[in-house]
Amino acid sequence: MSQDIVTATADGILQIRLNRPQKKNALTREMYGTLEAAFNRANDEPRVKAIWITGSGDSFSSGNDVGSFLEEQAGDRLPGAGGFLHALAALEVPLVAAVNGLAVGVGATMLLHCDIVHAATGATFRFPFVDLGVFPEAASTVLLPRLAGHQRAMELMLLADSFDASAARDIGMVNDVFEDKDLETESLRVTRRLTAKPSSSLRLTKARVKAGYGDLGAVIAEETPLFANAVRSPEAREAFNAFLEKRRPDFSQFD
Who contacts 110 (Cβ-Cβ below 8 Å, separation ≥6)? Predict the structure, then answer.
């Protein structure tokens, strides 16, 4: 159980706060494991009608901890991350996100699995995977084009530019944008509306909508060895080391 995840259940809502602000809520193996366990418990807990997730400090999540990528030598890409992604795809309870700041990497791709997403006016989003020598995970190569359209999704994934909350709302990734100071209050207000509704109907509606997406768990399983190989590639190692050394990566050596 990670100390960097704070959870509390009240009035039918499982509240989850990513609480590693000094690292912009970058996710570690332990954090992935805690999130996976929380999602799985929620599926089995009738009193949980909705999950609400946000971040501490100025970030929702800056993505996977880069140091963990460099530690990965063989096998699955971060076993904790793999379990988390499968639990996210299999989540039966409505998931609401309040994006309070930076949402990068898995901090952005996980939002594609959320049912309602709210963002602060100052929130920024980025899919940086190509710049890191890997590719977007979490079945986002299926979900993002479906949401934003092929060309817009490819632009966001291939160019890997940051975009703001207004742009995220325009492509349908965000439902509403609130002033930073009002985000939590407004997002929880919407989440509490869910708790007044019958749990069985909430879960069944989510299940039927997701059925139209195909087997996302199978997509994630297919991605896993591909991502693991990409993480261990020379290009990815150069990108990760450049990030930690605060320099621009040099990919010309691999041409």
Answer: 61, 88, 97, 138
- Which of helix, strand or coil describes residue 98? strand
Separation CA 120–CA 57 (nearest Å): 13
**DSSP character for 137?**
-
What is the spatial distance between Cα 243 and Cα 230, in angstroms, rounded to a whole number?
A: 17
Between CA 218 and CA 203 the distance in angstroms is 21
Tracing tokens 């002033």 back to the chain, one arrives at: 179
Q: Where are the beta strands (DSSP E) in 59-208?
A: 59-61, 95-99, 102-104, 116-120, 124-126, 163-164, 176-178
Distance CA 26, CA 37 (A): 18
Low-confidence spans in the chain with pLDDT less than 50: 74-79
pTM equals 0.93
Instruction: Find, among 83, 85, 9, the residue nearest to 46 by Cα.
Output: 9
